Amino acid sequence: MEFIIKHSVRCALPSFLLAFTASSVATLWPGPLSRWLLSNRRYFGLAFAYGMALHLAFVGYSVLSFGNGLNSTVTALDLTGGGFLLAMTLTSFRWAARRLGPANWRRLHKAGAYAIWLLATYIYVSDVRYERDVAHTLVAGVFLAAWVLRVAAWADRRGLFDAVKRPMRS
Q: What's the sign of the alpha-carbon dihedral 87, 93, 99, 101?
């Protein structure tokens, strides 16, 4: 059961990373592929939500069948991430997004994306500290790189790289 629980998350995370970095990729490298990624970001997010629903079903089954072997911190973090994911999933549909309004929708999705990113990053960085294997280190690195990508896109949108892009005058 533990194998299924761990791997269900690992199968869902690439969809999250694609949704999390889609706008940054489109900002930094505009083109047909990045436009496609951005236009399908919602579906990547919904695929992640589906994978996490399966994960939570496996966790629920495990808790009901074998008792809760998780500590309270992990349970609280999972519930926080699950709450954001549920809210983001429901507001990914037009009828709910309209009721929420554009500004609140953006706030929810940005806060939720960062909460989920932070949760996954925290888990993998903790695994690197305790298990010290290459796989966890690579995944933690990918999550940190995704954040760096978002910071770079934010800086690019604000023109912070313009001085670097301009050729020097002699």
A: positive
CA torsion, ordered 143, 72, 44, 17, to nearest 10 deg: 0
- With contact defined as beta carbons under 8 Å apart, do 17 and 60 qualify? no
Q: Report which DSSP code applies to 40.
A: T
Range 73-98 burial, b when 16+ CB lie within 10 A, else e: eeeebbeebbebbebbbebbeeeebe
- pLDDT per residue, tens digit, the chain (170 aa), is 878 888 888 899 999 999 999 999 999 999 999 999 999 999 999 999 999 999 889 888 888 888 777 777 777 888 898 999 999 999 999 999 899 999 999 999 999 999 999 999 988 888 888 877 888 889 889 999 999 999 999 999 888 766 555 555 55
**3-state secondary structure (DSSP) of residue 158:** coil
Is the Cβ–Cβ distance between 51 and 11 less than 8 Å?
A: yes
Instruction: List Cα–Cα distances, 73 to 69, 77, 103, 119, in angstroms.
Output: 12, 6, 31, 11
- Structure tokens, 162: 């313009």
